[in-house]
Amino acid sequence: MMTINRRQAISSMVFTCVTPLAMTQSTFPNKPLKIIVPQPPGGGFDFVGRVLGERLGKQLGQNIVVENKPGSGTLVGTDFVAKAAPDGYTLLVGSVSNLALNMGLYASLPYDSLRDFELLGLAVGYSYTLMARKDLPFKDLRELVAHAKVNAGKLSYASAGNGSGQHVLAAALWHLAGVELIHVPYRGAQAAYQDLLGGRVDVFFDLAPTARVQVDAGNVRALATSGAVRNAMHPDVPTLIETGVTGSGALELESWFGLFVPSKTPTDVQDKLRAELAKVISAPETASVFTKAGGRPLVLSATDAKALVRRDIERWSKLIKTIGVKPE
After folding, report:
1. What is the reported pTM?
2. Dist CA 182 CA 171 (whole Å)
3. Crossing angle for the helix pair 267-282 and 2-27, nearest 10 degrees?
4. Domains and CATH numbers, the chain
5. Which end of the chain is more exposed for a tag (fewer CB within 10 A), N or C?
6. How far is it, in rounded angstroms, from Cα 190 to Cα 203?
7. 86 SS3 class
8. Closest CA to 92 of 269, 259, 256
9. Residue pLDDT, tens place only, 140-198
């Protein structure tokens, strides 16, 4: 009798230990999820969050609420997810800007992109287009750089603000090309466009979908794009790598977007979210939505996606510190 009771006790202990995990596997998710967008409504973060949220919710059989948490650039919303309960119910829209660039821009960032987050999947990438005012007397980027090498500080470049993607990419380009241009920061891209079109600033990097409108209208000239391959919207415009202006320091940047969870989220929950998100990302209708919006759909294996994120975080944080770019 003692032996039977002891066995029953041991079995009960084992059941108690394994039941929470088994229940997690079988019942997650049993309530609505949240996707945190670390910027206001209307931008790229918000667009990606809502496209993925709607479709992922259908896959999981649960509502997904998209919540905008802007503040200090992208810091407030990103840090909120880093410190959220790691239960799989709070997801982050992560991108190059909040996970890679911020690591180099801020000396005391409240989160560590590699330590505090786990990638679920990357959905889309957007390259940048370098535009020149239409009356700038250089036919291509090579001529512009050649002129800048003997005329330091005579040309200017706009950005949407100190530490913005437009600022960091341009600063990296001029650093690697060995030239000095004057940085003119604006509060947002719209003000930068006004001065570029008005001829008061010489060049400006912006995301390709937005730049396309001005390029196609003939208001500006496209000099280069920032992706590893040519942008389908600007097939005749060379990449930065093709121009050769950065020498051996090949420069390319594509602003990828995807979903992340806090790093301590249970592995089985991560696996379920990752598998369902992969179905969403690989669906033709999702790819069509992103393509029409000027993006490049990313259908990568989990291993390749994680490698891309790690590469960009390590590369850009180091390069930003070397250049000395500072946020506002």
Report:
1. 0.85
2. 10
3. 30
4. 32-126+254-323 (3.40.190.150), 127-243 (3.40.190.10)
5. N
6. 14
7. coil
8. 259
9. 999 999 999 999 999 999 998 888 899 999 999 999 999 999 999 998 888 999 999 99
